[in-house]
Amino acid sequence: MSTPMRINTLRKAKILQEIVEEWYEPRRQDRNKKWVWEHKVIPYIPISYDRFIRLLKMDTTFVSN
To answer: Where are the domains of the chain?
Structure first.
């Protein structure tokens, strides 16, 4: 039996997805996800890069701010 996802984790994922949507540019090598994580996410939410990538993959379509 799985435990329900915590709402705060989903909210954090949604915030990160919005930051990446604003700053990530797919064809620019100087604006990749690693750059966004180092310069925009770490000062705001101190998490590891692996956790950052996992949160970006979460489905947050039903989460409201």
So the answer is: 7-56
